Amino acid sequence: MKEDKTMENPAVTQGSKLLKALGNKKRLEVMYILREGEQKVGDLEKIIGLSQSALSQHLAVLRSAGIVDTRRQAQAIYYSVKNDNAVRLLKMLDDIYN
Q1: Domain architecture of the chain: domains with CATH
Q2: Which residues contact 75 (CB under 8 A, 6 or more apart)?
Q3: Are the C-beta atoms of 79 and 43 separated by less than 8 Å?
Q4: pLDDT tens-digit profile of 4-63?
Q5: What is the value of pTM for the model shown?
Q6: Which one, of 29, 31, 42, lies nearest residue 75 by Cα?
Q7: Please, what's the largest Cα pairwise distance for the chain?
Q8: 14 neighbors 33 (Cβ within 8 angstroms)
Q9: Using one digit for the tens of pLDDT, what is the confidence trace for 52-97?
Q10: What pLDDT score was predicted for residue 10?
């Protein structure tokens, strides 16, 4: 019987993790904004049009998947893209749909 190697394939394991985290319209919107540069949470709220609570939940998903990074400056929290593969995936989406 042939052994199933898909479970050992990083493209499958890491790719599914990345796609799951990005599999939401609002999280994709956040990523399209962040790929242009670091943003304060308050600015993201205004741009995306979500409450602070809802945005925080989406950012937590992206952060736990290792896609975004945070830094604190005084009272402000800034988010930036941490995962270059996520940016490459956004570029592929642009190429396919634009």
Answers
A1: 10-97 (1.10.10.10)
A2: none
A3: no
A4: 665 688 888 899 999 999 999 999 999 999 999 999 999 999 999 999 999 999 999 999
A5: 0.87
A6: 42
A7: 60
A8: no
A9: 999 999 999 999 999 999 999 999 999 999 999 999 999 999 999 9
A10: 85
- Which pLDDT does position 37 carry in this prediction? 97
Report CA dihedral (50, 89, 79, 16) to the nearest 10 degrees.
Answer: 80
Q: Which residue is listed with tokens 């190429």? A: 95
Report the C-alpha gap between 66 and 36 in whole angstroms.
Answer: 18
Give the pairing of strands 39-40 and 68-73: unpaired
Task: DSSP for 1-53, please give it.
Answer: -----GGG-HHHHHHHHHHHHH-SHHHHHHHHHHTT--EEHHHHHHHHT--HH
Q: Cα(81)–Cα(66) distance, rounded to whole angstroms?
A: 9
